[in-house]
Write a structure and sequence with these properties.
Layout: H1 10-18, H2 23-29, E1 35-36, H3 37-43, H4 49-61, E2 65-70, E3 76-81, H5 83-105, H6 110-115
Antiparallel strand pairs: 1-3, 2-3
Length: 124
């Protein structure tokens, strides 16, 4: 998670902030509010516990998410989007729309159907 010292543009910096397979998915999973580590782990297919911890740490360091720890046993921690994370979520929603459009255009809608992701069939 090392940021470079010099960037040619702000977009390059943002790319470094969300680079990788999981960060955009984690941000998208937090779109509906606070979630526990366990809920995030079970809602993101294929991510390991170690990877989720690492990605959450990086997103927190970039100021896109934060966490709240509660006293008691068992330990309860909830993760949530910051205001910057909400801005990033807006961009990620647009990215998802582009992905859906591409999948529909290339007749790759099986996964959309399986996951219950709504889409509009394009007329030919």
């Amino acid at each position: 998670m090392k940021l470079r010292e010099h960037y040619t543009c702000p977009l390059e910096l943002v790319h470094d902030m969300i680079r990788g397979k999981w960060k955009t998915i984690i941000i998208f999973q937090l779109r509906n509010g606070k979630q526990s580590f366990s809920k995030l782990l079970h809602s993101i297919n294929g991510i390991t516990q170690k990877m989720l911890l690492e990605q959450l740490h990086e997103l927190k360091a970039f100021g896109l998410i934060d966490k709240r720890s509660y006293d008691g046993y068992p330990l309860k921690v909830e993760y949530f989007l910051t205001s910057q994370g909400e801005k990033m979520l807006s961009a990620i929603k647009i990215m998802q729309e582009i992905g859906i459009d591409y999948m529909v255009e290339h007749e790759q809608t099986e996964m959309l159907i399986q996951k219950g992701i709504p889409y509009t069939q394009k007329s030919k």
